[in-house]
Amino acid sequence: MAHVSLFIGQVQPLPVSGRLTAMYKTQVHGSVELGIEGFAGDHQADQRVHGGPEKAVHLYPGTHYAKLAVQFADAAPLLVPGSMGENIATSELDEHDVHLGDVWQLGSALIQVCQPRNPCWKIDERFGCDGMALFIDQHLLTGWYWRVLQTGTVNPNDSLVLHEAASQAPTLHQAMTLWREHRPNLDALSRLAETPGIAKAWQDKIKQRVSYLMK
Question: CATH: 2.40.110.10, 2.40.33.20, 3.40.50.300, 1.10.760.10. Which one for 2-166?
Answer without folding.
Answer: 2.40.33.20
